[in-house]
Amino acid sequence: xxxxxxxxxVRELHASLGLRRRPEDIAQLIQDSFAARRVDPGPATAEALxxxxxxxxxxxxLARATAQRPxx
Length: 72
What we know:
Blueprint: H1 4-16, H2 23-36, H3 43-53, H4 59-67
C-alpha cells in the first residue's frame, strides 16, 4: 500500500502535466516519489535524474542566435 506522501507526490506529478514546470522541479518530484516509496531508482535512473535536474544556461542558444544574425 503506497504511503500518503507517495500518493501526494504522484498527484503533484500528474498535476504538473498541464503546467509549465521547470525540468529540475519535475526531476525533484520524481526523486521524491522514489524516496517516499522507499525504492532505489537504480544507478542509471539516478544519474539520468541528476542530469535532468541540472539547470542549463542559455549560452549555447544565445551564441548560435548571435552567430546567425544577419549583418547589414
